Amino acid sequence: MRVFNKTIPNRFILLGIVFISCQFIILVLIANSCRILLSTLPATQSPQSQTDLNGSIGIFDSGVGGLSIYQGVKDLLINERVVYVGDMAHSPYGEKSAEFILQRCHKICQYLQQQGVKAIVVACNTATVSVIDSLRAQFSLPIIGVEPAVKPAAMHSKTGHVGVFATRATLASRSFNQLMADLSQFACFHTVACRGLVEAIETMPHDDNHIQRLLNDFSAQVLSHNIDALVLGCTHYPFIKHQLRHILPEHIDIYDTAQAVARQLQRRLQQVDGLAPQTHSLEDVFLTSGDAAFGEQIFSTLLNKSTKVKQLII
User: For 204-223, what is each residue's pLDDT tens digit?
Assistant: First the structure.
């Protein structure tokens, strides 16, 4: 007859419970240790989360041309903080289709809206004439565009002949041609599609000789028409105004849009009680879809100050 010891199974059950309990305690200790370790590590953040952009003014362009608008805004609205986006990975817009321009502008505006900006300046003539109406239909915040200063040039012209430097896309746009048609009773416009000028301005270091050759060629095309005003129909072009001044006769006035855009932005913010009441303590933010190191080089050169630029992938 076989006799079974009933205490043996109970011992195994007890040992199993102790073993499982020990494993659980060890796992809890490891998890707590990992959480403590991770909390001490520096966080890696994208440009979207590194800086609170809420209440800023968003300005964007296909590249660096919009920095001329940025300067106009900062000169007038000294209390405002600005986040600037240069879409340098896709510059220039002037040679792109309207569909492509709309796609890029929509992505940038969507990003800026998500960051809480209170207004957006489309600091690109090509984007303004191509897609500004679509952007205003898609986004509820104030969106300010830029357009060539042909109206003040026409109103002040004594000879009735005005030259216009612009990109191919701007000159081909329906809105720009309608604008010239509306002003045709005041002046005759002589337009030049300045192919390659945007690219030359965005090349670092600047090849001044190449830019000079381009400007000589473009200027010759309008000087034969007895103009007394020249409109810079691209936000990049003010950065070569000093070179143009050496080419053009003194009686020819040069028009750009930075001050007019800044005043329009001021009016729109006043309408919604959106002007900053006092100077902010945070620095402006500069982003590029291209190479950040190259962006820092050209931003710093054009703004004449050391400028930190971060990459934004959208």
Answer: 777 889 999 999 999 999 99
Q: What is the CATH number of domain 150-256?
A: 3.40.50.1860
pLDDT in tens, 140-157: 999 999 989 999 999 999
CATH 3.40.630.10 corresponds to the domain 54-146+260-311? no
Active site (annotated) includes residue 105? no
Nearest to 285 by CA among 277, 295, 275, 276: 295
188 is catalytic: no
Indicate which residue of 105, 109, 194, 234 is catalytic.
Answer: 234
Distance CA 298, CA 275 (A): 30
Q: Within the chain, which residue ranges are assigned CATH 3.40.50.1860?
A: 54-146+260-311, 150-256
Instruction: Using alpha carbons, select from 56, 40, 8 the residue that is nearest to residue 274.
Output: 56
Catalytic one of 105, 109, 124, 194: 124
Sign for the pseudo-dihedral over CA of 167, 168, 172, 173: negative
